[in-house]
Write a structure and sequence with these properties.
MetI-like fold, 2 domains, 7 helices, 0% strand, flat
Amino acid sequence: MQSLPAIPDIFKLKRGTGSPRRIQDNLTIFLFLLPAIVLFLLFVVYPIFRSVYYSFFDWKGFGPAEDFIWFDNYRNILKDRVFLIALRNAGLLIGFSIALQLPLSLMLAVMVGRDLPGRVFFRTIFFMPYVLSEVITAIMWLFLYNPNPERGFINAVIVLFGGEAQPWMGDTKLVLPALFAALTWKYFGFHMLLYMAG
């Protein structure tokens, strides 16, 4: 009768070997993540639940919340014209981002993903806006959109070619396209990187 070949030692299960090390590694990872978890729970999760709690009260922002009004705040906000306009504008920005920003990111990901000269340079340039903080981005675009042609770069170019300066952030017809341009510049590099990673 033919005997089965011996199982190599590398495939044999060694009881207890590595368990303390694995526990130590997991504990180390948890300790590194603990400060971020605490900050996230303290400054993100807790305020969200606290806001939901206060939304069921007629609370003025100071003192204890005592006048419980159920869903009256939600019913009132759905009748508020300013809120509905803001909701519509947010929906338009999201819709335009899906319809235009994502295809643009995919096209650029295909272009810089090829074996072409300078591809690393263009990847860095396209991704650089996402690295900038929101504060720096806002200051930069406020400078670009300044209605004074002597201070605003875009209006200076328009006036240089014989056009009229535009109140980009002060006109209801221009503010959404202006915001969409800034958001696209800020985030298209991040979406491009996701496409390249996928």
